[in-house]
Amino acid sequence: MSMSDLTTAARVSKAWPFQEAQRLLKRYPDGVKPDGSPVLFETGYGPSGLPHIGTFQEVLRTTLVRRAFEAMIGAKPEDGKTRLVAFSDDMDGLRKVPDNIANKEVLAANLGKPLTRIPDPFGTHESFAHHNNARLRDFLDRFGFEYEFVSASERYNSGGFDEALRQVLRKNQAILDIMLPTLREERRKTYSPILPISPTTGAVLQVPVEVVDAEAGVVRFTDEDGSTVEQSALGGMSKLQWKVDWAMRWYALGVDYEMCGKDLTDSVTQSGKIVQVLGGRKPEGLIYELFLDEKGEKISKSKGNGLTIEEWLTYGSEESLGFYIFPNPKSAKQLHVGVIPRAVDDYWQFRERLAEQELDKQLGNPVWHLARANGGFEGSEAPGAGDSLPVTYGLLLNLASVLGAEASEASLRDYLESYIGAGRITPELEVLIGTAVAYTRDYIVPTLDKRAPTANEAEALRALDAYLADAAEDTSAEDLQTEVYEIGKREEYGFENLRDWFKALYQTLLGSDQGPRMGSFIALYGIANSRKLIAEALAKA
């Protein structure tokens, strides 16, 4: 596949990253800005807490659009036609002490101060924000994202935002005209686009501010001790209200694309008006739906009903997380441990299909986008396309659940090598062996409940056992599956359909309502071991 073929197909693809990139292409038909500079993508992060799965999904989705845009203009990641900025809003004042932080008294004593001017409660960095920013960079690096880190504090303190701040001061009244009608009456009395830093306490103040001299950057306000202060708003002596700050950032950096969650819909509207007042242009962007828990309720940090990156990677693979996040961002997704096994197996199904697909179908395959997200392509080909696992993740989980307390990485590895041959366990499969043991231990074994078979089910199980008694240990999974089918179809056992037979097998042998292809399971677990399971079930009949 040539790059020109890819470019042509990308421009007509209906996959959502290409649809998003289409809007950027309309903005810049030649693929670059009028001044020749790269198209700028941005993601934002508030370092009052640690990076989480929401941070991951926003950077991933933005990267997917970025790479889609590059494909549409015939560029490679190394060509420098685009940039991605991960922006940390670390000049923000700390409003409350996070629940999951040690040494809370350090933060409690510094409420209201910019995050970069608060001591690090972990004792490892020069400030609380520096600690969390380091965690953010480690987090993004772990997943191989290509980005540039930008700190709000560094830009404010160094004067990098000074010219944009002067423009905010010049347009102060016009910004007030946009914002005041959106606020409650009580809030209007204290609202100001500019938040000065108190010269006495160092806190970010929410007080009315008078612009004395926009060109010089001088403002006047009442400090916390009641004194009237006249000082510069430049060089780190102030920051901006959130919606104004977002607009100023778009204006100062020249941001062309930024997505955000549904909860920021109003912010997008107001910030879009403000950036136009400043003389800039609102970036293109996507408003995505938020994650829900298993009950369909909005995920909340304070409730603790979410799922962390660490939890997902304990029970599933990195690729499966990206795969689960990929589909339609405008639809809400339930995010809980129970979705992981299906996501792992679905990822591998799509990865196996990729090599066989025509180009237009490849561009709709999540695996194509995930491989491209972090430069994982040689030319236009995805690495690992056509690869498959010798067993499904679901089958691994079933094997581990049957082993129960005896399940370990070593035991699963032994069974697998007996089934697929020694030396054939790939690094990807090695990861899943570990996660299968963890998932089974924490979520499957505690729920297992093997019921006694009914009379007709017991007769069918005896028939299966009789077949296995005469079968060679190396009988293929397909032959075993065929016999399982044949037994379930016999009228004398009284199953209305094969589904009832399979459900009986799962509930009596495995202790769950769902399970694997039994032929594959028997081949993996071994005929002798499978007969022991049947004997245990029949003993209850």
Short overview:
Helices cover 48% and strands 9% of the residues. With 541 residues, it is mainly alpha-helical.
What can you see in these coordinates?
Its main location: cytoplasm. It is an enzyme of class 6 (ligase). Its EC number is 6.1.1.6. Keywords: Aminoacyl-tRNA synthetase, ATP-binding, Cytoplasm, Ligase, Nucleotide-binding, Protein biosynthesis. The chain has 541 residues and is mostly helical. It has 3 domains: 230 residues, 3-Layer(aba) Sandwich (Rossmann fold), CATH 3.40.50; 151 residues, no CATH class; 90 residues, Arc Repressor Mutant, subunit A. The strands form 5 sheets. Strands 1-2-3 form a 3-stranded parallel β-sheet. Helix 8 runs antiparallel to helix 11, helix 10 packs across helix 11 and helix 20 packs antiparallel against helix 21. The chain is elongated, with a radius of gyration of 29 Å.
Keywords:
541 residues; mainly alpha; Rossmann fold; Arc Repressor Mutant, subunit A; 3 domains; three-stranded parallel sheet; three-stranded antiparallel sheet; 9% strand
From the 3D structure, determine the CATH topology of the largest domain: Rossmann fold
Structural class by secondary-structure content: mainly alpha
| Rg calculated over all Cα atoms | 29 Å
Query: How many strands, which pairing sense, and closed or not: the largest β-sheet?
Result: 3 strands, parallel
Widest sheet: strand order?
1-2-3
Specify the CATH homologous superfamily of the largest domain.
HUPs
Q: Kindly give the count of domains.
A: 3
Q: How much is the average pLDDT? A: 91
What is the percentage of strand-forming residues? Answer: 5-15%
Number of strands: 12
Question: How far apart are the termini?
Answer: 61 Å
CATH structural class of the largest domain: Alpha Beta
- Helical amount among residues, as a percent range? 40-55%
Spans of at least 5 consecutive residues with low confidence: none
How does CATH name the architecture of the largest domain? 3-Layer(aba) Sandwich
Taken from the alpha-carbon principal axes, the silhouette is: elongated
What is the count of DSSP helices, taking H or I runs of 4+ residues? Answer: 24
Keywords: Aminoacyl-tRNA synthetase, ATP-binding, Cytoplasm, Ligase, Nucleotide-binding, Protein biosynthesis
Pfam families: tRNA-synt_1f
Family: Belongs to the class-I aminoacyl-tRNA synthetase family.
Catalytic activity: tRNA(Lys) + L-lysine + ATP = L-lysyl-tRNA(Lys) + AMP + diphosphate
